Structure prediction request, 225 residues.
Amino acid sequence: MKILIVEDEPTLRTSLVAHLQSDGYRCEEAATYAQAHEKIKLYRYDCVLVDLTLPGGDGLDLVRTLKADQSPAGVLIISARGALDDKVWGLKLGADDYLTKPFHLAELTARVQAILRRRQFQGHNALRFRALTVLPDRAQVLVGEAPLTLTRKEYELLLYFLANPNRLLTKESIAEHLWGDAADTSDSFDFIYNHLKNLRKKLQEKGAVDYIRTVYGLGYELSAE
Prediction:
């Protein structure tokens, strides 16, 4: 899962990134309104954490932009502004949740997980697709009852497919999801093929059908057909 952290206070931003990365999330950062606005216009995120008081603008305008663009990203406002009016207004604009500073990092993780469950997995704790079961909160994958060991990239790749079943995913969108901004500087997407080949091999070794269909020249699709 890919998260954008919009926070101008460097120490807190670094702490948030380190904590969420330790929980297995891919994190990108923005310290100003302009940086955040550029990123949400260029890239797709699963969740955006937004501080309200930012250099160059108000975080609420970022929430407005995400909603106007019909972004699929969940939005969690993190702010020292704890007045009831601020919370109500932020939620009315379309934020999924509002967390007042200071907060415990464990609570932040729980709220992010809840947003992702609602947004990506219809509120379920487990993702199921044919013989596959994934428990995102534990980063655990099962084929039938058998646990499957994946690298971090293979796991992120599988989760991305499961969050978008029966939908064509281009190589560009997969690269951006797995590598973030760094994908822009890559000359080829051959590395996707290598991770995909390893993922397919591990799934088949556990007896799973190869559900990932190659759409030549375009990308890949998770399909049971």
